[in-house]
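name: query_chain
kind: protein
chains: 1
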Amino acid sequence: MAQLVKEGKVRYLGLSEASPETLRRAMKVHPITALQTEYSLWTRDPEDNDVLTTCRELGIGFVAYSPLGRGFLTGQFRTFEDIPADDYRRSSPRFQAENFQKNLDLVRKVEEIAKEKRCNPAQLALAWVLSQGTDIVPIPGTKRRKYLEENVAASELELSQEDLARLDEVFPKDAAAGQRYPEHVMALVDR
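structure:
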Protein backbone atom coordinates (compact mmCIF):
# COMPACT_ATOMS: atom_id res chain seq x y z
CA MET A 1 0.00 0.00 0.00
CA ALA A 2 2.86 2.37 0.78
CA GLN A 3 4.21 1.69 -2.70
CA LEU A 4 0.85 2.67 -4.22
CA VAL A 5 1.09 6.02 -2.44
CA LYS A 6 4.65 6.45 -3.70
CA GLU A 7 3.46 5.73 -7.25
CA GLY A 8 0.66 8.29 -6.89
CA LYS A 9 -2.08 5.71 -7.32
CA VAL A 10 -3.59 6.48 -3.90
CA ARG A 11 -3.16 9.54 -1.73
CA TYR A 12 -3.70 8.30 1.79
CA LEU A 13 -3.94 5.06 3.69
CA GLY A 14 -6.61 4.10 6.18
CA LEU A 15 -7.45 1.01 8.14
CA SER A 16 -10.64 -0.51 9.46
CA GLU A 17 -11.20 -2.10 12.88
CA ALA A 18 -7.48 -2.18 13.67
CA SER A 19 -6.04 -2.61 17.14
CA PRO A 20 -3.61 -0.10 18.68
CA GLU A 21 -0.79 -2.55 18.03
CA THR A 22 -1.70 -2.85 14.35
CA LEU A 23 -1.90 0.94 14.06
CA ARG A 24 1.59 1.30 15.55
CA ARG A 25 3.02 -1.39 13.25
CA ALA A 26 1.42 0.19 10.19
CA MET A 27 2.71 3.66 11.08
CA LYS A 28 6.26 2.30 11.04
CA VAL A 29 5.76 1.41 7.38
CA HIS A 30 3.71 4.40 6.19
CA PRO A 31 1.58 7.13 7.77
CA ILE A 32 -2.00 6.08 8.38
CA THR A 33 -4.48 8.92 7.81
CA ALA A 34 -7.67 7.41 9.19
CA LEU A 35 -9.06 4.51 11.14
CA GLN A 36 -12.63 3.41 10.54
CA THR A 37 -14.28 1.70 13.49
CA GLU A 38 -17.82 1.29 14.73
CA TYR A 39 -18.61 3.89 17.38
CA SER A 40 -21.86 5.16 18.85
CA LEU A 41 -23.86 5.21 22.05
CA TRP A 42 -24.57 1.58 21.13
CA THR A 43 -20.93 0.56 20.55
CA ARG A 44 -18.30 2.28 22.65
CA ASP A 45 -15.51 -0.28 22.32
CA PRO A 46 -12.98 2.28 21.03
CA GLU A 47 -13.11 3.97 24.44
CA ASP A 48 -12.08 0.78 26.22
CA ASN A 49 -9.45 -0.73 23.98
CA ASP A 50 -7.22 2.36 23.61
CA VAL A 51 -8.07 2.77 19.93
CA LEU A 52 -9.19 6.39 20.35
CA THR A 53 -6.22 7.19 22.56
CA THR A 54 -3.80 5.64 20.07
CA CYS A 55 -5.36 7.48 17.13
CA ARG A 56 -5.03 10.77 18.98
CA GLU A 57 -1.46 10.03 20.02
CA LEU A 58 -0.45 9.16 16.45
CA GLY A 59 -2.49 11.88 14.73
CA ILE A 60 -4.80 9.43 12.96
CA GLY A 61 -8.30 10.63 12.16
CA PHE A 62 -11.13 8.51 13.53
CA VAL A 63 -14.07 7.65 11.25
CA ALA A 64 -17.04 6.37 13.25
CA TYR A 65 -19.14 4.02 11.17
CA SER A 66 -22.62 2.91 12.24
CA PRO A 67 -23.01 5.97 14.48
CA LEU A 68 -26.75 5.20 14.52
CA GLY A 69 -26.26 1.68 15.83
CA ARG A 70 -27.11 0.01 12.51
CA GLY A 71 -30.26 2.11 12.47
CA PHE A 72 -31.48 0.97 15.86
CA LEU A 73 -30.80 4.38 17.46
CA THR A 74 -33.13 6.05 14.96
CA GLY A 75 -36.14 4.64 16.79
CA GLN A 76 -37.54 3.17 13.58
CA PHE A 77 -37.43 -0.43 14.78
CA ARG A 78 -40.19 -1.38 17.20
CA THR A 79 -40.32 -5.12 16.58
CA PHE A 80 -38.04 -7.69 14.98
CA GLU A 81 -40.55 -7.88 12.14
CA ASP A 82 -39.75 -4.25 11.24
CA ILE A 83 -36.45 -5.53 9.86
CA PRO A 84 -36.80 -6.61 6.20
CA ALA A 85 -36.60 -10.38 5.66
CA ASP A 86 -33.40 -10.10 3.58
CA ASP A 87 -31.64 -7.66 5.96
CA TYR A 88 -28.34 -8.79 7.51
CA ARG A 89 -29.42 -7.30 10.86
CA ARG A 90 -31.74 -10.26 11.31
CA SER A 91 -28.63 -12.32 12.10
CA SER A 92 -27.01 -9.69 14.33
CA PRO A 93 -26.91 -10.65 18.01
CA ARG A 94 -28.12 -7.19 19.08
CA PHE A 95 -31.30 -7.63 17.08
CA GLN A 96 -32.08 -11.10 18.45
CA ALA A 97 -34.76 -12.21 20.95
CA GLU A 98 -34.38 -10.61 24.38
CA ASN A 99 -31.48 -8.44 23.16
CA PHE A 100 -33.88 -6.65 20.82
CA GLN A 101 -36.20 -5.71 23.68
CA LYS A 102 -33.39 -4.67 26.03
CA ASN A 103 -31.91 -2.45 23.32
CA LEU A 104 -35.32 -1.05 22.46
CA ASP A 105 -35.73 -0.04 26.12
CA LEU A 106 -32.45 1.91 25.86
CA VAL A 107 -33.57 3.62 22.66
CA ARG A 108 -36.81 4.71 24.31
CA LYS A 109 -34.74 6.59 26.89
CA VAL A 110 -32.79 8.26 24.09
CA GLU A 111 -36.10 9.17 22.44
CA GLU A 112 -37.24 10.90 25.64
CA ILE A 113 -34.12 13.06 25.74
CA ALA A 114 -34.40 13.78 22.01
CA LYS A 115 -37.96 14.97 22.48
CA GLU A 116 -36.81 17.35 25.22
CA LYS A 117 -33.99 18.60 22.95
CA ARG A 118 -36.50 19.04 20.08
CA CYS A 119 -34.67 16.72 17.75
CA ASN A 120 -35.07 13.14 16.65
CA PRO A 121 -33.17 10.24 18.25
CA ALA A 122 -30.86 9.89 15.24
CA GLN A 123 -29.81 13.52 15.55
CA LEU A 124 -29.18 13.11 19.26
CA ALA A 125 -27.10 9.98 18.65
CA LEU A 126 -25.04 11.75 15.97
CA ALA A 127 -24.59 14.82 18.16
CA TRP A 128 -23.28 12.52 20.89
CA VAL A 129 -20.65 11.07 18.53
CA LEU A 130 -19.68 14.56 17.35
CA SER A 131 -19.29 15.68 20.96
CA GLN A 132 -16.67 13.00 21.61
CA GLY A 133 -13.95 14.96 19.82
CA THR A 134 -13.26 17.14 16.81
CA ASP A 135 -11.08 14.35 15.44
CA ILE A 136 -14.07 12.00 15.13
CA VAL A 137 -16.08 12.00 11.92
CA PRO A 138 -19.29 9.95 11.93
CA ILE A 139 -20.44 8.41 8.66
CA PRO A 140 -24.11 7.53 8.95
CA GLY A 141 -25.49 5.63 6.02
CA THR A 142 -28.66 6.84 4.39
CA LYS A 143 -30.61 6.21 1.23
CA ARG A 144 -32.96 9.18 1.41
CA ARG A 145 -32.34 12.89 1.12
CA LYS A 146 -34.66 13.57 4.08
CA TYR A 147 -32.43 11.55 6.41
CA LEU A 148 -29.29 13.09 4.96
CA GLU A 149 -30.63 16.54 5.78
CA GLU A 150 -31.62 15.42 9.29
CA ASN A 151 -28.15 13.93 9.81
CA VAL A 152 -26.44 17.15 8.74
CA ALA A 153 -28.68 19.13 11.11
CA ALA A 154 -27.29 17.05 13.98
CA SER A 155 -24.02 18.98 13.61
CA GLU A 156 -25.84 22.07 14.87
CA LEU A 157 -27.23 20.35 17.96
CA GLU A 158 -25.19 21.35 20.98
CA LEU A 159 -25.05 19.00 23.92
CA SER A 160 -24.18 20.40 27.33
CA GLN A 161 -22.11 18.50 29.86
CA GLU A 162 -25.40 17.84 31.63
CA ASP A 163 -26.86 16.36 28.42
CA LEU A 164 -23.83 14.14 27.95
CA ALA A 165 -23.94 12.98 31.57
CA ARG A 166 -27.62 12.18 31.22
CA LEU A 167 -27.00 10.17 28.05
CA ASP A 168 -24.25 8.28 29.85
CA GLU A 169 -26.69 7.61 32.66
CA VAL A 170 -29.51 6.26 30.47
CA PHE A 171 -27.23 4.57 27.94
CA PRO A 172 -24.03 3.71 29.81
CA LYS A 173 -21.01 2.12 28.19
CA ASP A 174 -21.61 -1.61 27.58
CA ALA A 175 -25.39 -1.19 28.03
CA ALA A 176 -26.27 -2.58 24.59
CA ALA A 177 -27.36 -6.19 24.85
CA GLY A 178 -25.58 -8.69 22.62
CA GLN A 179 -22.37 -8.55 20.65
CA ARG A 180 -22.24 -6.29 17.64
CA TYR A 181 -21.42 -9.16 15.28
CA PRO A 182 -21.80 -12.95 15.35
CA GLU A 183 -18.92 -14.65 17.16
CA HIS A 184 -17.00 -15.66 13.99
CA VAL A 185 -16.94 -12.02 12.83
CA MET A 186 -16.06 -10.63 16.28
CA ALA A 187 -12.85 -12.68 16.06
CA LEU A 188 -11.75 -10.41 13.20
CA VAL A 189 -12.39 -7.09 14.98
CA ASP A 190 -9.58 -5.02 16.52
CA ARG A 191 -6.83 -7.13 15.05
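note: The CA atoms of residues 4 and 10 lie 6 Å apart.
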